[in-house]
Write a structure and sequence with these properties.
heterodimer; A: 253 residues; 9 helices; elongated; B: 245 residues; alpha/beta; Rossmann fold
Chain lengths: 253, 245
């Protein structure tokens, strides 16, 4: 049965991504890091996503609180709303939703950018200038997504809690101090550690998958759209698979 | 003019069932401009991409500046590539960089020890040589097709390569601009003392730039000669190129 791609395509893609990861680490160890490029991409991919991440984070916190309130009210446990929302947001919803947004916004951008460079022979031009395209184009982007996505998730979590606080105040007056105290009371290391681990892995794979589809694009301008589209689909799928695996693994810790 | 800078022997390359080269041979001598002519789809661009190992052939021997390209290590390949300039069909300017940054990037990739002042001097003098000093701070998207070709040429020559490979340098340009680019290719050879391999199907460009012409057909050398020899040749296949002259 063909689910998304054929079996041979699947193995070629997985093999290609693993080979790219091997090249990434090999260059990271052997060559001098281009900090200027990394900072540039951290700004372009991370800082320029702050507006979208703030808005979506705020809405998630607000909606989650409004939707959960009636159920908790039935048990007379509305006082637990900040705690419930904070645990849900920090452990699962914040990292996954933010990673999915980044897979769409950042993954597609990387895929389209690199594939258009491939189509217009700019990558070939780098190679004939004796510049390693993986070192110049791919390593800084993967490092940027690996650093920035955990920060974007933390930023999104803050806005989700802010949204939750606003929703709590729609029905009951609650001070920010009590809200924070209540939210923080139920958060411990076992909530934060898996979330941090998986956001780092999400960031790494969103960057890697975008770079892979961009770098190996072939054909005309149609391949630019295809690379952007494949980057989003594959990175989104990877987010769910990584989430499942990390939750299973960290549950033993 | 006897020193061979590029030597291709018995090159074979296929894409699936489509054979592009079947025992292709070519030599580029020091100081000459060799024009490779062929119909569309005969693999002319594949040939020069094989020469700098952007495409791997199935078999054959390619020697550039005495280095066996197909067996070279990455470091050896980089050293050879630093001596070879490549003008891509579409220019391949880095569109996220200004013209100045495009040239600076090429220069720094080639020579990391240059001072900032030397880099700026090199950029200004190279842009002056291609007649486009005024576009230094523009972005590639702001330039016309002919200007992009000139800037791409400036980016190629700024590193003073020994060999320049031109992939269809006049494609997509009007007759007047094509002639300008062809004249520029000739003047670059004189100013920079380069040897060039020019891939084209533009006969006026071949006439202006070529010391020697090589026609390829069915994946192999068909005939070699000067422009005047080909012009008076009665071979039917050769006449298809030169009928308008």
């Amino acid at each position: 049965m063909k689910l998304l791609i054929s079996r041979s395509e699947f193995f070629v893609t997985v093999g290609g991504i693993l080979s790219l990861i091997k090249n990434f680490f090999s260059i990271l160890i052997r060559k001098r890091t281009n900090y200027r490029e990394i900072f540039f991409h951290c700004y372009e991919l991370g800082v320029l996503s702050l507006g979208l991440i703030s808005l979506t984070g705020f809405i998630i916190g607000l909606v989650l609180t409004l939707q959960s309130r009636p159920t908790l009210a039935e048990f007379g446990a509305t006082a637990l709303l900040p705690a419930m929302v904070s645990v849900s947001v920090i452990r699962e919803i914040g990292p996954v939703v933010t990673a999915l947004i980044c897979a769409g916004k950042i993954g597609s951008r990387i895929g389209a950018e690199i594939s258009s460079m491939r189509v217009t022979e700019q990558i070939d031009a780098l190679e004939v200038s004796a510049v390693n395209p993986i070192s110049y184009l791919i390593v800084p982007r993967i490092l940027a997504t690996t650093f920035m996505i955990p920060l974007l998730v933390a930023y999104s979590d803050v806005f989700s809690l802010l949204g939750s606080y606003v929703a709590c105040n729609m029905t009951d007056a609650i001070s920010i101090k009590i809200f924070i105290k209540s939210a923080a009371a139920h958060i411990d290391f076992s909530d934060i550690f898996p979330a941090v681990i998986k956001t780092v892995i999400f960031g790494f794979f969103i960057g890697t998958i975008g770079c892979y589809y961009g770098y190996y694009a072939s054909g005309g301008t149609q391949s630019v759209g295809k690379a952007a589209n494949s980057s989003v689909v594959a990175a989104s799928l990877a987010v769910f698979i990584i989430d499942m695996l990390v939750v299973q693994i960290t549950s033993f810790l | 003019m006897n020193e061979k800078l590029i030597e291709v022997i018995g090159l074979n390359k296929s894409f699936g069932s489509n054979t592009v080269f079947d025992d292709m041979n070519l030599s580029l001598y020091k100081g000459e401009n060799l024009v490779v002519l062929g119909r569309s789809g005969t693999g002319k661009s594949v040939l020069i991409k094989c020469i700098v190992k952007l495409i791997l052939p199935e078999s054959g021997k390619i020697s550039v500046l005495g280095t066996e390209i197909l067996n070279a290590s990455n470091d050896q390949l980089d050293e050879v590539r630093k001596e070879v300039g490549f003008l891509f069909q579409g220019g391949a300017l880095y569109d996220s960089m200004s013209i100045s940054e495009n040239l600076e990037f090429a220069l720094k990739a080639h020579n990391t020890t240059m001072t900032k002042a030397d880099v700026q001097n090199a950029i200004h003098s190279t842009l002056e040589n291609v007649g486009l000093k005024e576009v230094i701070y523009k972005m590639p998207s702001e330039l016309s097709g002919g200007m992009r070709k000139r800037i791409a040429l400036a980016r190629t020559i700024i590193t003073h390569p020994k060999i320049i490979l031109y992939d269809e340098p006049t494609t997509g340009l009007d007759t007047y601009t094509s002639a300008e680019i062809s004249e520029l290719i000739v003047s670059i050879r004189e100013k920079y003392n380069t040897s060039s391999l020019i891939i084209t199907h533009d006969i006026p460009c071949a006439k202006i730039t070529g010391d020697r012409l090589l026609i390829i057909k069915d994946g192999k050398n068909y005939k070699e000669g000067t422009f005047d020899e080909f012009k008076s040749d009665n071979d039917n296949y050769i006449r298809t190129f030169f009928y308008s002259i």
